[in-house]
Amino acid sequence: MDDLMKRQDAALSPETVEIISVVVRDMMAPIVKSIGTMLEHNTQAMEQIAAAQQITSERIASLEKRVRLQTPMSKSQENCINGAIRARARELLDPRGFSEDKKAVTKLCGIIRKSVLARYGVGSLREAPAYDYETAMKQVGMWNDRLAIRDVEKEARAREEAALALAEQSAGVDGTPADAGQAD
Question: Which pLDDT score is estimated for 3?
């Protein structure tokens, strides 16, 4: 055994070590080079996959947005908004004493509804996007166009005065009907 060790020590001279390292390097260089090339190709493939995933993610987000925008309000959402519009119109006309005037309430409801529809660029509440229901309700609740309210109030006051004038005209000065004293 000692003899074998001595032979190995003698065989591992610096020249032998250098020759062995050159041979090992020459054998390993193509393997390491092919592994490096393979890793480089894998990196490029992963970058392409990541880019494709990002494009797909952006397309999905765009489609989700489109679906949200194109999903119309349900009938019950539309009814709730219409109810809120009527309530807001009555609320705005109540301090002025015209909350029971159906024409005034209807006219103000139309103005409020037109304001909500203009926000979405649609012709009816049914066409407005369903996802924005809460925003539409908030807009109705905060709506307060003083000029429009004043115009509706003027019209209601004019109708009320015309009705009073008609009632006075049909009644005589003493409160009896104007045609009560006339004979047939």
Answer: 62
